[in-house]
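User: Hey, quick favor. My workstation is busy. Could you predict this chain's structure for me?
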Amino acid sequence: VLVTSQKLSSAPSELLAPGHRVTLVVRHGDSDSDTRIQVHVDAGGSAAVRFEAQPYSGSVPENRAPGTAVAGLEAVRSAVEKFPYGCVLRTDGGADTDHFELSHNPATGNLRIVTKSVFDRESRATYFLLLSVECPGKKSASAYIKIDIEDENDNAPVFEHAEYFVTLEELPKP
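Assistant: No problem, here it is.
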């Protein structure tokens, strides 16, 4: 049983974000042992979880090795930070799920989406990823993330003919 001297809040505070930190001391005879624990307060109630703005967008350069992080996801990170503790994020559903991988550490708030493929912008310029969150109390939400493949000047220009002929009209003198 954890007894507090004041009401705990589920809202992050500057001093205690992302949760409340407590040092637990156990005494047995003359010896002590201590550990730090972090307490997350479930907001409970019927408050819905939701993504604020959609679709979100990010980008990744073409021709990069798998494991490259998708850039521009600050708005997604900001939305995820507002979810109550205990929420689980997934990238499931949608045809493009096989091309990306989600990495999320709820303790640190670190959210990354990385590539699982090498992309060629000339083959396909845009992908869509469905991000879902499920929170305690069967609350859930989902949002699409549009991922643009950034062009790299990797293709030389191609001319169909060896020579081109044009006719230009001379302008009259003023």
